């Protein structure tokens, strides 16, 4: 491949980024094989370098449906047109060039709509790539955009924001290093350098949301305490599960559990279980010849009409329409 230069990107943030992206290959979004039964999006990352950039092409015909969640932190950026991104119970409308800080532990998905067609840059990483218990204390500041949502609104950097050009320049350099540099040592050094530069500008942009170091650590602890419950739901999502039983698995009181679960998952327990069941139903509709009644029963819905209603509310189509369109 012809070497990519970053000179263009330095001249004009977003147009320079588009010029670099014009030379790169964007794959159709197809991650179905990487989702487990509870919608967890599994990607194997290098322990020494837990960082990944994916270039996807989304459209109504080319993207994996269903809600996902993962431990990785993530940024999502549509390049060509609008996108709709649901996190928990909120739907975020994005325009060209917007950068969304994904609330990764909440079930999230890209929402289909008429005319949906755009390339997307997705940047994923583990928190320890930037900050761990042995890091200098100031390094946690790079993660502020991901953990500091005190106003309860999604963090979105818009194309028109004053900090946007510097972020686009950093992403352009990041893409250049990621897809040009063949030497592993310099690839890793360059990725981390320009990625931290990008996070620096994002942290400055979202400086209004303050977060103390102990709050960041506490959010991590909340997620870890709920892991046994997430694992249980993954194995037995079709079984009935009361709030009292879920609290017992998480080793919390019922009030503490309900508050903690909502903070981590972004929704109630029953909504989460419904999402897991419906994500599994998507796979069965796509990959098997089971009847819709059989699928409803297999994923834990004893009433098919209720299953149809919940499915249509989540995916905009009935199970029958979804299977036909696939």
Mean pLDDT reading = 82
Order of helices and strands: HHEEEEEEEEHEHHHHHHHHH
First-residue to last-residue Cα separation: 35 Å
The description of the largest β-sheet is: 6 strands, mixed
Strand order of the largest sheet: 1-2-8-3-6-9
Question: Overview of this structure, please?
Answer:
With 326 residues, the protein is α+β, with helices and mostly antiparallel strands. It has 2 domains: 7-205, Regulatory protein AraC (Jelly Rolls), CATH 2.60.120; 221-325, Orthogonal Bundle (Arc Repressor Mutant, subunit A), CATH 1.10.10.60. It is 45% helix and 14% strand. It has helices at residues 7-11, 13-22, 144-147, 164-180, 184-205, 213-236, 243-250, 254-265, 269-287, 292-298, 304-315, 319-325, and strands at residues 27-28, 51-59, 73-78, 83-87, 90-94, 99-102, 108-111, 117-125, 155-157. The chain has a 6-stranded mixed sheet, covered by helices on one side. Strands 5-4-7 form a 3-stranded antiparallel sheet, with no helix packed on it. Strand 4 and strand 5 (90-94) form a beta hairpin. Helix 2 (13-22) runs parallel beside helix 4 (164-180), helix 4 (164-180) packs antiparallel against helix 5 (184-205) and helix 7 packs across helix 8 (254-265). The model is unreliable at 1-11 (pLDDT under 50).
